[in-house]
Design a protein that fits this description.
With 114 residues, the chain is mainly alpha-helical. Helix content is 37%, strand content 0%.
Length: 114
């Protein structure tokens, strides 16, 4: 039987706090806007979409994969999952985006073989 334990580490919690503080600051500048409720996946103990472990980008020092999901440093290694997405905190399901990235990455790999 497989067991998966997932938890946010202190640096991730600090990033979430910083993100919420920045969001509150933006909202406070909007005339007439107010924060009515502030709830995240962390508050509700519901499943989260962990992502961002192999970020895409053109800077090899700040990303693991290129825009096609191909690893910068390991030949013939490609990613086709949520690891390509930048960390999105708690939000809507990224399933369709992941599927689109997987199809695009598969197309790029196929093109390399032909």
């Amino acid at each position: 039987m497989a067991r998966i334990d997932s938890k946010l580490e202190s640096n991730e919690l600090a990033l979430l706090r910083r993100m919420m503080e920045a969001l509150r600051a933006v909202i406070s500048e909007v005339p007439g806007a107010e924060t009515v409720e502030e709830t995240t996946t962390l508050d509700l103990s519901t499943p989260a979409h962990v992502s961002g472990t192999c970020r895409m980008g053109s800077d090899r020092c700040r990303s693991v994969a290129d825009a096609d999901g191909i690893c910068h440093t390991v030949p013939n290694l490609a990613f086709a999952d949520a690891s390509l997405l930048s960390t999105d905190g708690s939000g809507d399901s990224p399933s369709l985006t992941i599927q689109a990235l997987a199809v695009r990455t598969a197309d790029k790999l196929r093109a390399r073989l032909t």
